[in-house]
Amino acid sequence: MTTTTTVPSPIGESVQRIDAREKVTGAAQFADDLQFGPGLLYARIKRSPHPHALIKKIDVSRALALPGVKAVVTGADTPGFIGLYLQDRHIFCTDRVRYVGDPVAGVAAINEEIAGQAVNLIKVEYEILPPVLDPEFGASPDAPLLHPDLGKYEVVPFILPKPGTNIANHFKIRKGDTDSAWSQCAALVERKYRVPQVQHVPIEPHVAVALVDEAGKVTLWGSSQSPFAQRNLIAKTLGISQSDMRVIAPYVGGGFGSKAGVSMEALAVVIAMKVKGRPVKLRLTREEEFFTCFVRQGLAGYFKMGCDTNGRLLAMENKFYWDGGAYTEYGVNMTRAAGYSSSGPYEVPNVKTDSICVYTNHPVTGPMRGFGMPEMHAGLEQCIDDLALAIGMDPVEFRRINCLKTGSTLVTGSKMHPTGLPECIEKVAQAIEWGKKAPPSAPNKRRGKGIALMWKAPAMPPNAGSSSWVRLNEDATLTVAVGGQELGQGTFTVMAQMAAAALGVPVEWVRIASPVDTQYSPYEWQTVASRLTWSMGNAVVAAARHARQQILELVAEHWNEKVEDLDIKDGMVISYQSEESMPLHDMVVYGLPKEGDCGWRGGPVLGRGDFMPTYVTGLDPETGQGERAVVHYTTGAQAVELEVDIETGQIEIIRGVAAFDVGKAINPEMVKAQMEGGFVQGLSTALFESLQLKGGVVQNPSFVDYRIATSADAPPDIQSIIVEVPQDDGPWGARGIGEHSMVPTIPAVANAIYDAVGIRLPGPPFTAEKVFLALQEKK
Amino acid sequence: MALHKIRVTVNGSTEMVEVPSNTTLLQMLRERLVLTGTKNGCAAGECGACTVIMNREPVNSCMVLAVECDGADITTVEGLAHDGQLDLLQQAIIEQGGVQCGFCTPGILISARALLDRNPHPSDHEIREALIGNLCRCTGYLRIIDAVKQAADAVAGGAR
Asked: Are residues B8 and B74 in the same domain?
């Protein structure tokens, strides 16, 4: 799309975030900061205390009688089904609850306290059913059926549920012939790893405010990664026009996937339908945040892989049982993504994969930074290390030989586009001083290094689109409108850089039309999949170039010159022919006068642009083979050096190194900030985080019991290295980096622990207690 | 619920507020005084997003009752800049790239301001200790720590 030989300013420059000043002064508005006046009502939700039960009776009479209560809703008020890929849930439960926290009823009252009291007055009679608490059991014929109507649910064509079972999607790879390949292998590794559910933990809890007017038009303000997807899904469920469903989304205080799709927002809308004209605010408590919106799905993964005497990977066999939870807003597609990426970033001639999404009576799983990749790579990259050691090869050398290179055949049968993965390996190995062992800092400590690779594609429908418009103002400043969201990743700044570069004005002249408002903002599928820099970027560049073309045509006519001889530099139209120049201001709104006072030409300049990939094909449902499964893959590598205290099991990260091929870093410092932030989030999931589920109940729904990395846990040093092998259809070659930065961290840490003390744990988190016990067992 | 009349100084201006006994300082700031820069991340004193300075000490405002603030002097994130001039910490965290989603940023800035007020030359360890109660999920903390160092160095260099 935008392959230019010279890169215009400010592409590749670390300009300051355009949202920084308002964020450091407290002026930046988040959803809970918006003011709605004294008419605002507050909602609370009555939730199921059981993991699996039938609803026999709901009595709301005492709640309704409580002074201050304005409305109570139940499943009887809920219209049909809702769901992004597979429509498998009601907004409020109708006949059955499927996890502890499932919404059964909702209350609107004049304050949160009364709403909470009213919730306690709602009486629900249940008939308790046996739960499914393990995905492998859930996939077996012995398991109770959680969705007896699975065969009747609406589903997109590339998701394959199995009616009559708890399997919401089964994705298969059948490439080559693994059965005959095993006999040719000189070394084999076979392992099982488990990755527990974790939570995204945005510091801003979910909040939604809904207002339904007398005509039934809905406005929803929320902390949202997906204003347009929410508009679409909620409107469809309510049976209203998408244009009568307006979503306004101010800054998001951290998302990581938890605020994608529809989670709790629809609850506020359904409650607001009963109190027309009054805005209703629903904000989750931190406790609710841990188990009632999304969690990252658990994984029970079986890995088998083998190589020949030269260390060439010959075969892989993977079986993934994903704990999809009670409903699968995204789980079904993560299962697919993990399946079509199941070789890891390696060229393997024979692959057999079964990636299975299983309904359980656990919290609903949603996308989390990495979209299945951190969980899958956690086991896979440990096996790669073990296989290298089994064949007597250095793990870095083994990866060098087997990693994907430009033109390699992928697990789905297509060819790898240009990739800098080999360079990422070299850079990381060099930076961590691979092969050199530093002495430990104390006699009771052991030091180790570990490396892991990753790849990840934006997992999305094949035709996820972006659009943008660019408006010139009287003083030649630009208003750039997008439908993608600023979550902290810096997309508004990057879009401003791209618009400025494509049009030819200083970046300081660009303003982003925010907040995103589906009534005015151009369409954007969702802010997920690390796809905005690439996809929305293309749309913004196209819009800015469209505006530029209008300006150049106007001035060319005015000067009686050719468009090709003109350029826009630093906010001035210039001619390389006549050496004339003219500032943009005024002309971009009022046009230019014709000579001799005989009229005007031009008018307000408004550029429009869009982008949608058109080349993604389907995959064969039995073999997972196809022409082009995804738009592209971002690849990278991480390494860590750590110390294990053999007396306590405590792990201390000495340093981390990361290298990712981002195609082109539009803003290098912000790219590095993503690499660092993702690294620490990855370390947090490697060392501390696990949702403790017991009988379907989350035992640790607070920051005291669910520990995330603090300032004291961040390693002293993280080195971030940018590799740039351009993406053919990315703006200036750019592709995404946000999610990728935490994908290889768990196995890098695990491999370093093995290097230090020779133990492998069955899964993260690698807590001091588990490390200590494993060390005792090893003795 | 009994109502209490309190007099509190917030960012240098005196406020007279009538609050119920169970109103927290965080609620009073956000809902009564519409100072929404101070954030609510857990309402349980665990995340630090609501940190404000109360009589020179950083506190989790969700854990302080408004009635306890009668006569107190409070500084929130809105009170850090003066006459449009950013505090050195605000400037440093922008320059170091220590802001991402921005939700923890107000609490971080307040904790860091309280640290530099009592210890103008903190060590790396002291900075990490001072920020340990301010959870950040985006940045990985390193650029925030560098920002506090930059601000401390700027003070040492004579800037303010």
From this structure: yes
| A30–B contact, CB cutoff 8 A | yes
Map out the domains of chain A with their CATH numbers: 20-29+464-611 (3.30.365.10), 37-129+206-254+259-285 (3.90.1170.50), 298-416+430-457+633-778 (3.30.365.10)
Tell me whether B20 touches chain A (CB under 8 Å).
Answer: no
| Res. A79 pLDDT band, cuts 50 70 90 | confident
Question: Prior bond to A515 cis, omega within 30?
Answer: yes
The last residue of a domain, from among B57, B79, B101: B79
Say whether both B97 and B75 belong to one domain: no
> Does B67 share its domain with B110?
no
Number of domains within chain B: 2
Query: Are residues B97 and B34 part of one domain?
Result: no
Residue B29 has pLDDT above 80, yes or no: yes
| Whether residue A341 has pLDDT greater than 50 | yes
Domain end residue (candidates: B79, B101, B125): B79
| A597 Cβ contact partners less than 8 Å away, ≥ 6 residues apart | none
CB interface of B with A, residues 84-113, below 8 Å: 86, 90, 93-95, 97, 99-106, 109
What is the C-alpha to C-alpha distance for residues A536 and A492, in angstroms, rounded to an integer? 11
User: A377: which 2 tokens?
Assistant: 């790579």
Integer-rounded Cα radius of gyration of chain B: 16
State whether B36 and A708 contact (CB < 8 Å): no
Q: CB A253 to CB B142 under 8 A?
A: no
SS3 B19: strand
Whether A472 has a pLDDT exceeding 60, the answer reads yes
Q: What is the pLDDT of residues B55-103, one digit of tens each?
A: 999 999 999 999 999 999 999 999 999 999 999 999 999 999 999 999 9
In angstroms, the CA A494 to CA A627 distance is 32
Distance from CA of B117 to the nearest CA of A (A): 18
Task: Give the model confidence (pLDDT) of A115-165 as tens digits.
Answer: 999 999 999 999 999 999 999 999 999 999 999 999 999 999 999 999 999
Same domain? For B96 and B132 the reply is yes
Q: Would you place residue B160 in the very low, low, confident or very high pLDDT band (cuts 50, 70, 90)?
A: low
Q: What is the CATH number of the domain that holds B125?
A: 1.10.150.120
Do B44 and A35 make contact, defined as CB atoms within 8 angstroms? no
pTM of the model: 0.97
Q: How far is CA B23 from CA A36, B29, B30, B68, B78, in A?
A: 20, 10, 11, 10, 21
| Of A605, A497, A609, A39, residue with least CA distance to A272 | A39
For the segment A408-445, what is each residue's pLDDT rounded down to a tens digit? 999 999 999 999 999 999 999 999 999 999 999 999 99
Tens of pLDDT along A611-652?
Answer: 999 999 999 999 999 999 999 999 999 999 999 999 999 999
SS3 A177: coil
Q: Domain of B22: which CATH number?
A: 3.10.20.30
Query: What does DSSP say about strands A167-175 and A123-128: parallel, antiparallel, or unpaired?
Result: unpaired
**B36/A contact by beta carbon, under 8 A:** yes
Q: What confidence tens digit (pLDDT) does each residue in A175-209 have? A: 999 999 999 999 999 999 999 999 999 999 999 99
Residues sharing a CB contact under 8 Å with residue A779, sequence separation 6 or more, in sequence order: none
List residues of A with catalytic annotation. 739
**Residues B75 and B92 grouped into a single domain:** no
Q: B130-147 burial, b for 16+ CB within 10 Å, e for fewer?
A: bbebbbbbbbbbbbbbbb
Same domain, B92 and B48: no
If asked whether residues B19 and B75 sit together in one domain, one would say yes
Strands (E) across A2-147 are located at: 41-47, 53-59, 69-74, 81-82, 89-90, 96-97, 103-109, 123-128
Q: What is the ipTM of this complex?
A: 0.98
Domain that holds residue B53: 3-79
Could you tell me if residue A31 is left (phi over 0), alpha (psi between -120 and 50 degrees) or otherwise beta? alpha
